[in-house]
Amino acid sequence: MARYIAKRILYMIPVLLGVTLLVFFIMHLAPGNVAGMILGENATPEQIAALEHEMGLDRPLLVQYFDYLVGLLHGDLGTSYTTGDSVTNEIMARFPYTVQLTLVAAVVSILLALPLGILAAVKQNTWVDNVSMVVSLIGVSMPIFWLAVMLILLFSLKLNLFPVYGADSWKSIVLPAISLGFMNMASIARTTRSSMVETIRQDYIRTAYAKGLSRKTIIMRHAFRNGMLPTITVIGLEIGQMLGGSVLTETVFAWPGVGRLMIQSVEGRDTPMVMGCIILMTICFSFVNLIVDLLYGAVDPRVRTMYR
Amino acid sequence: MKKFLSLKRAAALCLAVCMIAGLLAGCGGGSSDTSDGGAAAEVDTSTLTVALTSEPDYLSTCDHDSLMGVQMNLLTYNGLMRIDMETLEPVCDLAESYTQDSDTEWTFTLKQGVKFHNGDDFTADDVVASIEYAQTFPASTTYTGAIASVEAVDPYTVKITTASPTPNLLYDLAYHYNFILPKSLIESGNDFSANPVGTGPYKLAEWNKGNTITFEAFDEYFDEARKASIPTLEFAIIPEGSTRTMSLESGEVDFVYSVASSDIERLQSTESISVTDVVSVENFFLYLNCVTTDFADENLRKAIAYGINREDIVAGALNGFGTPSYSCVSMGYAESTDENAYTYDPELAQQYLDAWGGDPSTVSLDIICSNDTKTAIATIIQAELAELGITVNIEETDDATYQAAMRTTDLTSAIVSWSPANAMTYVQRFHSDRRNQTPACLTDETMDAMVEEMNVTMDDAARSEMITDIIAYANEICPFVPIYQVNYYRAYNSALQNVVCSATGYVDFCTMSWS
């Protein structure tokens, strides 16, 4: 198992290299001039050239990329073009907020989605199934922006229960987590349902019924466990995505996460900051995928044997 | 089967009712509930919470040239001069008085007993160190380049010598690049963004990146008349317009720096909320390539200028929240004039088109737009110029691409805005030396001569007259097509007093107080 984990972590190195290479060159291919952006409209070409020289932007691209990689190996993500601050500091100031939001939203979505999906599968083709699937369809189709505004209107302005914006107390996270979690709930519930429907049609489930096991035991111990694999995959993907920042939710609730930072950095052509955010996203995604793979093993003994 | 279908119908009906009820509660409840005023319900008078659209990149003076950055600088720093937010004229700040000894020599007597936030005394040495420090930043050249030397005559007297007569010097000294920092911290390499130590009415308490910036009143502030009366000032970064509005309605914030146009009417009708409407000097105009395109011809430019109905643009693209602009320099400065300005006149536009003599169908006006509002404006221009037979193409880009294009002659046109603090800086833009920054702008020898003469005229009255003449002449030669002046809408809790919002976009938070 340890060997498997080590191997998977080593696989991340070429992935990270590929990602940095792609992002670095795409950022430099995009039109626009970083020094010009920093100095503003009144800057003269001489001032722009001087700043480009100072920032090392007049060197060949490959040299700049190589320098970036050397810095990266030393744990230095560079300095932001727009704020002059260390990229690591800027990202680390926001990443805890993103993690908080991701975890709470994930809990919300899982708590809602699993019962909904299981219930829909068990009561397949009944009104319970229909209502569950309509609810999850609404979750998939509803613009998160609209849902967020509706939540604020109801819970902040009308009922005065939660704050409209910010990240100052536990109350602040409730509405962003609900709006983000509700959207993710939909896809998890639908996957759980279809996976469970397939599982409860299997022969071994019929055998379990024939053996006289209770319905609850069959569903929770046999069907649910075996039907979990696709659900774990979807949950992993959703968490990975949320760790990269949820721009719309962060924007509406003024949540100071990484998503907003990355969008601002792309707009400002802040290459080191964009690179830093993308590297963080890549690492998060890779780790979540690794955890998902390990969970497969925990759930399914057949997968466990492959790790050996 | 029948039972199943009826259950299904019942479930669908229940769901539909729930959804409609939810919608009505959400949509209807918000506005009706707020009209009786969440904002004024309970006010914490020790704090003023302000909703900002974006976070300043720096709190230092020399690393930026952004509106938000300058707004923060005005809290923590002072210059020798400051711009009065109501008159837009320079007045003494850290300077007690000044004398002009010759066309190039100025002597400033400094206020005594002024303290920096770190406890240092303010003296002439700090002024010398600050201006010399600012001169090391390439971006500050426009505001520090005229200063040839700064000398501390005694601890409270400074002599500034300019390279040539510089009537703009007082304005330059009020600009944030020339704000005064403690010499000791400049020498020790202090990071003035993380630790913005100045003499200002507020000092930084906490900067929670991406979230809030908090300032506390500086008890030893030197100017009793402008001493902060609200102990804590907190800026919350709320990028989304509707969230800013709802925060104000719920009473979580007290002041919204920029109100989304879709919310203005609602807030105006809310009793506990006041909305100020300031016609700014920020001018949006259609920049034309006068060097490598057909727009080098004055008649064609004028045909465009007379062919665009600004009122349609304000109504259609800005929901009515803007002011049509017809003169090349915004109205609102003492020197502003609408002499020779371009009102909407399709017949006159056709006459200028005929005078140009070309085939309008061969004219291709490609307008670069770097945001949605500009695109909406360009769409209306497209429809209106189609009546003259001119084809308009809209090119949507991001800000970086737009700025890069403006530094070349490889563009046809763009929607551009500019908001200088004074009319003199504005008309200096008409001089051909600005082709260094915007190579496609118009070159006109008469204009160059007029601007050069103004630049060395030290007599205030004579210079003002010259500026007015330059504006009238600019309107005559039409270097670009003015479109509209921005209206700044600031919304705040009605219990706030002494709210002063300048036409240059700044808000005076120091003088605000709770009733």
TrEMBL record, chain A:
Keywords: Cell membrane, Membrane, Transmembrane, Transmembrane helix, Transport. Residues 95-296 form the ABC transmembrane type-1 domain. This is ABC transporter permease. Pfam families: BPD_transp_1 (PF00528), BPD_transp_1_N (PF19300). Gene3D superfamilies: MetI-like. The chain crosses the membrane at residues 9-30, 101-122, 134-157, 169-189, 229-253, 273-299. It is found in: Cell membrane. Belongs to the binding-protein-dependent transport system permease family. InterPro entries: BPD_transp_1_N, MetI-like, MetI-like_sf. It comes from the Bacteria. It is a multi-pass membrane protein. SUPFAM superfamilies: MetI-like.
Automatic annotation (TrEMBL), chain B:
Coiled coil: none annotated. Residues 89-430 form the Solute-binding protein family domain. Gene3D superfamilies: Dipeptide-binding Protein, Domain 3 (3.10.105.10), Periplasmic binding protein-like II (3.40.190.10). InterPro entries: Peptide/Ni-bd, SBP_5, SBP_5_dom. It comes from the Bacteria. SUPFAM superfamilies: Periplasmic binding protein-like II. Residues 1-25 form the signal peptide. Keywords: Signal, Transport. Belongs to the bacterial solute-binding protein 5 family. PANTHER family: OLIGOPEPTIDE-BINDING PROTEIN APPA, PERIPLASMIC BINDING COMPONENT OF ABC TRANSPORTER. This is ABC transporter substrate-binding protein. It comes from Oscillibacter valericigenes.
